[in-house]
Specification:
Layout: H1 6-19, H2 23-36, H3 41-57, H4 62-68, H5 79-87, H6 94-112, H7 118-138, H8 144-162, H9 170-189
């Protein structure tokens, strides 16, 4: 077998393991591929999804790995946060940026749903809302027709869970308008 084909085969094998629910073997395969080429974005994304799926199906603590990357031998896996950082400035990866930001917020919401205390749950939901807010500040288009509706839906769920008015992304526009009015009021007093 040609050596240059091996990473693609391992990548597909990792996806097969993940489909079977063998997340441990899937992660091991992703690590193997990333040791050779740590910047392979599709592999990094699939590894983050694997942690996320493992969080959904086995142990919610794996949501942390999905968000922040692997630890120990798996530290080569970036996680959604680092994927977002690495794709933020390159227009070619705008879709991947939004995929990672959205999944970061989603993992926080999912993880919040597994917490035992209302304080823990509230903190994680506020962090998820903050992720969406910061994404909106960075890029007001919110990823356009593909990602904006997904952010909108997720934010509405967060607002409902927090007992806030369910207005979706409109809340950020309202906050900006209020801040603008407050700063103009302050300028008039001077």
């Amino acid at each position: 077998m040609p050596v240059d084909k091996l990473p693609a085969i391992k990548h597909h094998l990792a996806l097969d393991y993940r489909s079977l629910g063998d997340y441990e073997k899937a992660i091991a395969m992703f690590i193997d591929v990333l040791k050779e080429k740590p910047t392979l974005l599709p592999v990094q994304i699939e590894a983050a999804y694997t942690y996320q799926m493992r969080g959904e199906n086995e142990n919610p603590d794996y949501f942390v790995g999905a968000m922040l990357g692997g630890r120990g031998p798996a530290e080569i896996i970036w996680g959604w946060n680092q994927i977002a950082q690495k794709t933020a400035r390159d227009e070619r990866f705008r879709d991947r940026f939004h995929e990672s930001r959205y999944n970061m917020a989603l993992c926080r919401v999912e993880f919040a749903g597994t917490r035992n205390t209302p304080e823990e749950k509230r903190k994680l939901l506020e962090l998820a809302k903050g992720t969406i807010r910061e994404t909106n500040r960075y890029e007001g288009t919110m990823g356009g027709a593909k990602w904006k509706p997904q952010y909108e839906k997720l934010l509405r769920e967060i607002q409902k869970d927090l007992g806030e008015p369910v207005v979706g992304l409109l809340v950020f526009e309202q906050q900006e308008a209020e801040q603008g009015a407050a700063s103009q009021g302050g300028e008039k007093k001077n």
